[in-house]
């Protein structure tokens, strides 16, 4: 009998806490319920007008950082030109060098902000994340082929790209790649010697002879950082989950085999828009 009385009290509490009438019927603290519903609708409308809804932020990312971009057209002699818009593709993994924008930054900003980490992404479609423009290191606008051993700066596109430069420096305890602890590669709004790079020929036996010759699109190349004399590397064994999928870590470190030749971590190729 005591158990039945407890069950009756509990069921009564449930019925009291559950709305058993039509919302138009004024029962209990009806004025508070009406005010709460009005406040919820008001907050939703304010967020919608300010563009703070999750669906609006997602569309903001798609329309800015992931929108389609055009690469430069391939020339007849396949020479790489200053001012060209390119993708840097890592040959062994099939990934492209991309900016790694955090989920928070991508939803609150319409363009890349300095500093911005880099990664190697399987998303190979040209977009502001992975399209770079080859600029002269001294700021001059050149309309001539880029040669091996010639210094240049890799910049992101204006607008969503933010016109940031590919940057690296020596590794420190506080400034290094997250997993490999090697020299970090980032995008910075910087004009120092930390953003100057050069292309090297893959074959070390003819590297000196190739200096001064134009870089050919599609050939295997090595991207060398002028300040540290280290090469851009894709570390496929270190992967991280990002809002854009599983991506690989990128650092600035030269990896050599027993013949003193660069290994697959340092081997890249240039991708442009091929004529049909």
How would you describe this structure to a colleague?
The protein is α+β, with helices and mostly antiparallel strands and 276 residues long. The chain is built from five helices and twelve strands. Strands 1, 2, 3, 4, 5, 6, 7, 8, 9, 10, 11 and 12 form a twelve-stranded antiparallel beta sheet that branches. The chain starts with a helix and ends in a 5-residue tail after the last strand. The mean pLDDT is 82.
SSE inventory with pairings:
Elements: H1 2-17, H2 30-50, H3 54-63, E1 85-90, E2 96-100, H4 103-108, E3 116-121, E4 132-136, E5 152-156, E6 165-168, E7 185-188, E8 197-201, H5 207-210, E9 220-225, E10 230-242, E11 245-252, E12 268-271
Antiparallel strand pairs: 1-4, 1-12, 2-3, 3-7, 3-11, 4-5, 6-7, 8-9, 9-10, 9-12, 10-11
């Amino acid at each position: 009998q005591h158990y039945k009385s407890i069950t009756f009290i509990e069921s009564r509490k449930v019925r009291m806490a559950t709305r058993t009438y039509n919302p138009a019927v004024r029962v209990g603290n009806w004025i508070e319920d009406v005010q709460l519903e009005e406040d919820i609708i008001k907050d939703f409308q304010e967020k919608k007008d300010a563009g703070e809804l999750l669906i609006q932020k997602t569309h903001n990312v798609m329309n800015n950082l992931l929108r389609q971009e055009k690469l430069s057209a391939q020339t007849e002699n396949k020479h790489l030109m200053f001012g060209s818009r390119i993708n840097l593709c890592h040959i062994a993994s099939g990934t492209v060098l991309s900016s790694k924008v955090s989920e928070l930054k991508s939803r609150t900003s319409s363009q890349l902000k300095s500093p911005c980490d880099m990664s190697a992404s399987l998303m190979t479609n040209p977009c502001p994340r992975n399209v770079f423009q080859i600029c002269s290191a001294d700021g001059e606008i050149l309309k001539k082929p880029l040669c091996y051993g010639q210094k240049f700066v890799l910049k992101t596109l204006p607008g969503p790209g933010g016109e940031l430069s590919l940057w690296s420096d020596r590794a420190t305890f506080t400034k290094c790649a997250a997993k490999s602890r090697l020299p970090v590669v980032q995008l910075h709004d910087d004009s120092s010697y930390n953003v100057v790079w050069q292309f090297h020929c893959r074959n070390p036996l003819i590297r000196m002879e190739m200096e001064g010759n134009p870089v050919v699109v599609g050939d295997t190349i090595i991207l060398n950082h002028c300040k540290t004399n280290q090469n851009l590397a894709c570390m496929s064994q270190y992967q991280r989950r990002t809002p854009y999928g599983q991506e690989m870590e990128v650092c600035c470190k030269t990896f050599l085999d027993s013949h003193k030749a660069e290994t697959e971590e340092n081997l890249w190729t240039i991708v442009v828009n091929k004529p049909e």
